Amino acid sequence: MTTLPTLPELGSRAPEFALPDLHGRTVRLDDVRGEHGTLIMFICNHCPYVRAIADRIVEDSRALLAEGIGVVAIMSNDYRAYPADAPDRMRAFAAEHRFPFPYLLDETQMVARAYEAVCTPDFFGYDADLALRYRGRLDASRTTPVPDARRELLEAMRRIAATGEGPEEQVPSMGCSIKWRAA
C-alpha cells in the first residue's frame, strides 16, 4: 500500500530523540546534528521504494555529510509483524549499502509519531537551528530508479545550508506506510 505523507508546518522544530543504533549505543538528535543542517529520514529494509533508492540515498548522504549536514536514518516499523525489518536485518541492510550515517531503531514508534512520519522513505530537512525547511522526496524515483532524475533532496539540503530556506516547491515523498503496532 502506498501512502502520501501529510506535511507538518515548515519552521517547526525537530523533536528530540534518543534511540539505539545497530550496536546498542544511544544516539541523540544533538549527536547527528550538522553545523549547516540535518537530514532525518525514516526508512526500512523491506520497502520496495527504499530498496530502489538505497544506493542514491547513500551517495547523496555522503555528499551532505562532507558539506557539514548531519544525516540519520530511523526505522520505526513493527518488526515483529514484519521480520524483514528486525534489527539483525537492519545491520545487514546497512552493511550491504555501506551506510555512512547511523541507522536507528524506533521500537516504541514514538519518534515516528513525533515527526509525523507516515511512510518509508520519508525525508525531513532541517536548517542549522533545527527548523524544518524540507519535507519532500529524494527524487522522482518510485519503485524503479529514474536514472537522470533531478536530485531534489540534495539540492534542497544544499539550499538550506546556504540560505536557511528550503525550496518553494516541495513534492511529498511516496512509499510504503509505516507498519504501526496494533493498539
Automatic annotation (TrEMBL):
GO terms for molecular function: antioxidant activity; oxidoreductase activity. It holds the Pfam family AhpC-TSA. Coiled coil: none annotated. It comes from Thalassobaculum fulvum. This is Thioredoxin family protein. Residues 8-159 form the Thioredoxin domain.
